[in-house]
Amino acid sequence: MDYNATTPVDEEVLNAMLPYFGEKFGNASSKHHYGNEAAAAVGSARNKIAEVIGASAEEIVFTSGATESVNLAVKGAAEANYREGCNIVTTEIEHSSVLDTCKALSESGIEIRYAKPDRYGRVSAETIDELINDDTILVSVMTVNNEVGTIQPLPEIGTICSKKNVLFHTDATQAYGKIPMNAAELRIDLMSFSSHKIYGPKGIGALYARADNRKIKIAPQIHGGGHERGLRSGTLNVPGIVGFGKAAEVAGKMMYDDFKKQTVLRDRLIENFLRRLPHVYLNGHRSKRMPNNANICFEGVTASMLMNSIKDVAVSAGSACSSATLQDSHVLKSMGLTPDRVRSSVRFSIGRMTTGEEIETVIEKYINSVNNLRN
Ligand code: PMP
Fold it and tell me: Is residue 127 pLDDT above 80, yes or no?
């Protein structure tokens, strides 16, 4: 029940990767047989990864994961486009990779302007529009929220940024390969995403950097041999890239079926909790919501009490990253939930392997526990 934190590596993905730890061990930059073999595998993976978002291979820059992609996009755009008095527009509900990067930039004198979401965790395009001024060098709005699953109005925000000639970055980590996205149609300039959320290996991700748009200027954050169009130096992680490519290919094929199946399971979870327990609320938007997310507030009990009493079901209170530091969810707070409701909220996130039986088990365990703890 915590697939938003990470996913297991698909067996097909693992099998695709294995030869690249063994006999096909070449450095993709080497100009001989071993290198050429590795470079061909990287090229094929790059195509598959690009295809999922309607992009072309040269628009994909490999990184170590979405955190690094976000750092490259946001710091890279800030460094390349810096001018006195400039600002970046983002939202209060971004993942820490965006918020902490912006905080670091604010310490070096760049103004950060934060958009507030409504009570469903949705940031309006009008709010973004109002925050942009002549000094805005970048807008960064996540595609979907990792805690409450709310889908943001990306087409509208992309149109505004394009009209105003402002770079647009989106953290698509929880959306890539799960909902249909076309980077060019959405007028996205920069998009961050990661392999381990789509049944690929950890430690590999990508930044989509639009190639047909001369206004994109980002400064590399890791210097060296000039790999990845000079934007991210370092010997390529060939097995990771091959695995990511396979995971992207499978995600592209399975997207429709995964979406349908997970929507049914998610709704069964939500509907049972809301119908069978009093004082239970759904956090996030009812319909503009990821098919795999149910964030539920069980009033009168805390998420940590529930997690302690049901140890064999893996869920999350807030995001995995913020639960490590035991902070109240900044997302739920920003949506206007009271501190009690924030602490009573549990994130269930399901995945491709989740079964109806598992959902039934979780429903019964949670209903029993909530009733017991409330008594
Ligand atoms: N952004 C979002 C929305 C996420 O959910 C995550 C993963 N928790 C990240 C960024 C960071 O991704 P990675 O683990 O690949 O660095």
Answer: yes
